[in-house]
Amino acid sequence: MKTILQQLQQVHDRIAAAAHACDRLPEQVHLLAVSKTKPIAAIEAAYQGGQRQFGENYVQEAIEKIQALSATHLDIEWHLIGPLQSNKTKVVAEYFAWVQTLDRLKIAERLSQQRPAHLAPLQVCLQVNISREANKSGILPEEVAALADKVAQLPQLNLRGLMAIPEATEDTEKLKSQLLELQQLFDRMAQIYSSLDTLSVGMSNDLEIAVACGSTLVRVGTAIFGTRPT
């Protein structure tokens, strides 16, 4: 049975191979280890392998981990990659470095207001519903420009990029079409906002296609930590 360290290295190897295949540098693609539902020991194991960026979906679970690990002084950069309700913005503003799932101005305003003054601005990505699925979070592509304009003006937020969860499909061409649309949208927005440098897309099953379509940050859980408990 492979260890977390071995699986982490395999993911880095996959990222490097995917980058080389499309004439990109491996260091242009960052790895976010998705540690939701995983124990602290698993996070510590990945940390020992050099991993510093971790993503959590559930606010309360994440806060418990952040508080427990803060006592050990690990320099972890925590990303919220799950939905955020308005009643949780204060604690997220206090504990996280990034929020990747911003899709409402109200949430953005609350995060900016509640970000402690002694902390650096909260790094944020707008979540885009690139597949236009009715039951999926995120704003539609044509709504990105208007929300970005508002978010960029908030003093305690730093607009860094776009995030998406493409359609779960085995149709590679359909997936690639969605990712290329997202890449084109990102490129247009990056011409307007110099702070945009993050295109967060790609997971354990599709990171190679995502890297080929411009992803700068892949969110990988299962390939590092194994399957989640049901």
UniProtKB/TrEMBL annotation:
Keywords: Pyridoxal phosphate. InterPro entries: Ala_racemase_N, PLP-binding_barrel, PyrdxlP_homeostasis. The modification N6-(pyridoxal phosphate)lysine is found at residue 36. Residues 23-229 form the Alanine racemase N-terminal domain. Pfam families: Ala_racemase_N. Its cofactor is pyridoxal 5'-phosphate. GO terms for molecular function: pyridoxal phosphate binding. PANTHER family: PROLINE SYNTHETASE CO-TRANSCRIBED BACTERIAL HOMOLOG PROTEIN, PYRIDOXAL PHOSPHATE HOMEOSTASIS PROTEIN. Pyridoxal 5'-phosphate (PLP)-binding protein, which is involved in PLP homeostasis. Belongs to the pyridoxal phosphate-binding protein YggS/PROSC family. This is Pyridoxal phosphate homeostasis protein. It comes from Oceanisphaera avium. The lineage of its organism: Bacteria, Pseudomonadati, Pseudomonadota, Gammaproteobacteria, Aeromonadales.
